[in-house]
Design goal:
Length: 182
């Protein structure tokens, strides 16, 4: 089995260093998953660009975390579940809603539930949403632009989730409290 390195800015390939600097600036650290991902400049740069768009889009940061946590659980990426649990709680998402998502259930909040349900359904159906799936989301008060924006968030989280499942980076101490097994 391959053992993937977790790069730092000093050890990463030249093409990955700007992306790692950007992540360090955003998070105050370089997440281990990004260090592992930086083995491929193409992958880390794709993720950073896509996440920049997702986090700068029309969803609140709490809504983004609902999508990303749901995706991490749906894709069974243990590192990402712990990471996004911590970020969701930091963004003020009700701890009961966070636990519901971690257990594969929908949050109690109706709008959060619609967002989580769409993200999970999009992954499970590989993007082949039915008219009912789309209508359920739109009837919760979201627009067509939001529906399409979820695709970008799912794409970004798929990069992270798949990388985590393949490289298996160690979970950093700040996220140990939120460790998860699917």
């Amino acid at each position: 089995m391959a053992k993937f390195p977790v790069h730092t800015i000093e050890t990463a390939p030249e093409g990955s260093k700007p992306a790692l600097r950007q992540l360090q600036s955003a998070f105050g650290m370089i997440p281990n998953i990004a260090g592992a991902m930086s083995t491929s400049p193409v992958l880390i740069n794709s993720l950073v660009a896509l996440f920049g768009n997702v986090h700068g889009g029309s969803f609140t940061e709490a809504q983004v975390q609902i999508i990303l946590l749901t995706d991490a659980v749906t894709n069974a990426c243990t590192w990402a579940v712990a990471f996004h649990t911590a970020l969701a709680l930091k963004e003020g998402i009700d701890p009961a809603d966070v636990e519901a998502i971690r257990a594969g259930r929908l949050p109690a909040d109706a709008k959060a539930a619609a967002l989580s349900d769409l993200a999970k359904t999009m992954i499970e159906k590989r993007g082949r949403l039915s008219d009912e799936d789309v209508d359920r989301f739109l009837n919760a008060g979201f627009g067509e632009d939001h529906l399409l924006e979820v695709i970008a968030a799912v794409a970004a989280s798929t990069i992270t989730n798949y990388t985590g499942s393949i490289t298996k980076p160690a979970l950093e101490a700040p996220f140990q409290l939120h460790a998860w097994q699917g």
